[in-house]
Amino acid sequence: MGAPYARIVRRETHSPRTVAAIVLASLVILACVYAGLELVLRMLEQPPLLVTPDAALAWLAALPTLQPQDAITAGGIAVALIGLLLMLHAILPGRTARHQMLHDNFAVLVDNGVLASSIAHRVETVARVPRGQAVVAVSHRRASIDVTPTSGIPIDESAVRAAVDDEIASYKLTPRLQPAVRIKPTGAVGS
User: Fold this and answer.
1) Greatest CA separation found in the chain?
2) In terms of pTM, does the model score above 0.70?
3) E-strand spans in 49-159?
4) Helix 69-91 vs helix 18-43: crossing angle, to nearest 10
5) Helix (H, G, I), strand (E, B), or coil: what is residue 93?
6) 174 and 100 in contact (C-beta within 8 Å)?
7) Domain ranges within the chain, ordered by starting residue
């Protein structure tokens, strides 16, 4: 796969940080507009909207000596955690619910819901259970398959596992899915 396709696949399989950047930029802009408004009101010798800039700076300077210290410490820890979460959000790659299928000349992306539906259909066929008795959840690296047998009809677990492995292998996904098949011990009433 060529470089343009690699860029497209990367863009489509990783979530953008646009919303977080817009929210943070909006908050910073609002804070700057408020601070500018308070400064202009101070220069025009008008009463402040909330607090004068001098009073705000005095409060910040006195913050380490205020009581109760536990509340100040808790506030500082909360601000530090918010900052850490924002840094992790900026650094760590966000994932969308899509996988890439390997193909020689094309960039093929498949939604996790489509993969789950296809795997569920194959499991229902092999296990001979009605539609809806195979529940599949696909995440970035894992496919969890829960099969509820029909009461009185046993399910060949090894055949289901082999069918799931074969189905997932036929997709040639990147990253590869690790299946986890679970046959529920209690069955559903047949329809």
Assistant:
1) 86
2) no
3) 98-101, 108-111, 134-138, 142-147
4) 130
5) coil
6) yes
7) 3-91, 98-183
How remote is the C-alpha of 17 from its chain's centroid? 12
The verdict on whether omega for the bond into residue 68 sits within 30 degrees of 0, i.e. cis, is yes
143 in Cβ contact with 168 (< 8 Å): yes
CATH of 98-183, one of 1.10.530, 3.30.1490, 3.30.70, 3.40.1350: 3.30.70
pLDDT single digits (tens) 107-147: 788 889 999 999 999 999 999 898 989 999 999 899 999 99
Q: Which amino acid is at 138?
A: V
**b/e map 17-51, b = 16+ CB within 10 Å:** eeeeeeeeeeeeeeeeeeeeebeeeeeeeeeeeee
Element (H, E) at 182: strand 178-183
